[in-house]
């Protein structure tokens, strides 16, 4: 499916705003909701675009799901589409966790969302399975791809780490090249690479300009609206920006993998939050929709109130997303290579296997209760057979969870 020139910025904003408001359960859950909306319902992109974006995001630093959203926004409407999509996907989680952090600062506890989350988890697991099954039906062409899918899923289930993800991706790429690249005579493509580089440099410049303006506004607004803001406070915002952007660009493997590294920096190294506050920040990141990296909002707020929260959020999400956008432009051209095409025939089943493993990981965290199985089976049926929109399934499952787990 080619880039959809008719996709409006309004569509991207409203769609990702809605997705950002209902995507509980981690990065693969968010990606599953994106696939349901953009591929199955609105038919804006093909499954292979989603899979390619996951493949690229998995080997780049930063939050995987957010990087995928940046890729898709860029794929559909270029730089403007990427920026609109990134802002929209963050707004619901940022607003909610900002409110929760304010309440936390008063009561020193996390509000009780337990029963709602107990209903959401099985729904998310069911949706991930339905998405993986749908992708497998469309992309699995032979026995080798099925074997890659199964092995990658099992590997990630038993050995969860960033290095496992890298090995899975490398293994899928090598197998794809060995078995699907036979007899492929690759033409020399220096002109293609040179042309691609020039195109990406030109497309990358507006992003740099926007980022510089954004950073200037973030640092300048406190001085405009708060006369008491001192140079020291502005320097603190700089420290927050440098710390979180540095982490986002140097840490690989997604939220759950890099949590210990972030803990080491903000708790042990900088003493910005206590160990208890950090644990509560991670908990808030899980009970709110959107990426778990949104926990940075909590930490930024504890350090420098609203402006600290805003700067921390921008710093941890936007730099790796900009890197993703830059690399995605190269991918669109490089994929014309027949060798790369063979590699992706091995990569895509590996990614689908990783999606299946995400459902298992979420399933392990579910409470083994009859209501859990009722929600899981019901959502699986509604998603696969009746194609019910996930925008209704996830909130409804949370409400059912409140009802069933409270009464029984």
From TrEMBL:
This is Chromate transporter. The chain crosses the membrane at residues 12-34, 54-74, 81-104, 116-136, 143-159, 165-183, 204-225, 240-262, 282-301, 307-330, 342-362, 368-384, 391-407. It is a multi-pass membrane protein. It is found in: Cell membrane. Keywords: Cell membrane, Membrane, Transmembrane, Transmembrane helix. GO terms for molecular function: chromate transmembrane transporter activity. Pfam families: Chromate_transp. Its main location: membrane. Coiled coil: none annotated. GO terms for cellular component: plasma membrane. Belongs to the chromate ion transporter (CHR) (TC 2.A.51) family. InterPro entries: Chr_Tranpt_l_chain, CHR_Transporter, Chromate_transpt.
């Amino acid at each position: 499916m080619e880039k959809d020139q008719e996709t409006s910025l309004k569509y991207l904003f409203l769609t990702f705003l809605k997705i950002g408001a209902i995507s509980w359960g981690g990065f693969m859950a968010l990606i599953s909701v994106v696939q349901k909306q953009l591929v199955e319902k609105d038919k804006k992109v093909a499954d292979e675009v989603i899979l390619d974006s996951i493949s690229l995001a998995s080997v780049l630093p930063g939050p995987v799901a957010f990087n995928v959203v940046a890729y898709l926004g860029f794929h559909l409407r270029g730089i403007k589409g990427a920026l609109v999509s990134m802002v929209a996907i963050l707004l619901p989680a940022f607003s909610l966790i900002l409110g929760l952090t304010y309440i936390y600062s008063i009561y020193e506890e996390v509000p009780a969302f337990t029963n709602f989350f107990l209903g959401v988890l099985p729904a998310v697991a069911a949706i991930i399975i339905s998405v993986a099954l749908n992708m497998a039906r469309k992309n699995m062409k032979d026995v080798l791809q099925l074997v890659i899918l199964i092995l990658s899923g099992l590997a990630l289930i038993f050995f969860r780490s960033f290095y496992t993800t890298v090995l899975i991706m490398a293994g899928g790429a090598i197998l794809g090249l060995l078995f699907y690249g036979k007899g492929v005579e690759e033409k020399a493509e220096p002109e293609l690479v040179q042309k691609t580089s020039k195109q990406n440099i030109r497309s990358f410049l507006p992003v740099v300009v926007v980022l510089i303006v954004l950073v200037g506004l973030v640092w300048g607004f406190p001085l405009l609206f708060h006369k008491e803001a001192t140079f020291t406070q502005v320097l603190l915002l700089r420290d927050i920006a440098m710390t979180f952007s540095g982490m986002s660009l140097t840490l690989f493997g997604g939220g759950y993998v890099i949590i210990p590294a972030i803990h080491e920096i903000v708790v042990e190294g900088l003493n910005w939050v206590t160990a208890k506050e950090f644990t509560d920040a991670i908990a808030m990141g899980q009970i709110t929709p959107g990426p778990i990296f949104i926990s940075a909002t909590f930490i930024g707020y504890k350090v420098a109130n609203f402006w600290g929260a805003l700067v921390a959020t921008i710093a941890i999400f936007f730099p790796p997303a900009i890197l993703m956008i830059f690399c995605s432009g190269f991918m669109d051209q490089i994929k014309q290579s027949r060798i790369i095409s063979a590699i992706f025939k091995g990569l895509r089943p590996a990614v689908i296997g990783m999606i299946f493993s995400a459902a298992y990981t979420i399933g392990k965290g579910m409470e083994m209760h009859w209501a859990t199985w009722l929600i899981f089976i019901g959502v699986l049926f509604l998603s696969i057979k009746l194609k019910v929109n996930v925008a209704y399934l996830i909130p409804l499952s949370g409400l059912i969870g409140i009802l069933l787990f409270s009464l029984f």
